[in-house]
Amino acid sequence: MTEDDNMAGGFGFEDLDVYKAARNFRCRIYKLVQLLPKEEAYALGQQMRRAAISLTNNITEGYGRHNWQDNTQFCRIARGSLMELVDDINICLDANYAKPEHLSDLKSNSLDVLRLLNGYIAYLQKRKSSKKQA
How far apart are the first and last CA of the chain? Predict the structure, then answer.
């Protein structure tokens, strides 16, 4: 694989719908963090950034392991990071850090990412089962 292949999305994980959705969600979380008041920029803001990074990093790390068990486990960790972000969105809602409509839309977006993650995990499990039967 050449460097040009990598720049054109040659890594494989970049083509996954779950990765694309998680990456978009991460970008939206970063925009939300910019709305936080100064006193929350470090504590809550940093925590949200770390969880958003963890979401996409774990999807890609699992993909790179080329082992269904590792891939599944890293996707489960990504799912945990996603749930953490939903709670952080709730914190923002409770503290009125952003418009309720915006936060509701983010939570809806998180459900889309969750469905894709769960579907990808199910796909990995099914592939494992079909390889055992072969």
Answer: 30
Judged on CB neighbours under 10 Å (0-12, 13-18, 19+), 47 is middle
**Residue 41 neighbours by CB under 8 Å, 6+ apart:** 33
Q: Which domains does the chain possess?
A: 14-133 (1.20.1440.60)
* pLDDT at residue 132, rounded to an integer: 61
**CA 100 – CA 1 distance, rounded (Å):** 46
Tokens 């292949």 belong to which residue? Answer: 5
Please enumerate in sequence order all residues whose Cβ is within 8 A of that of 38, keeping only pairs 6 or more positions apart, or say none. Answer: none
- For 78, the token pair is 């990504």
- pTM to 2 decimal places: 0.88
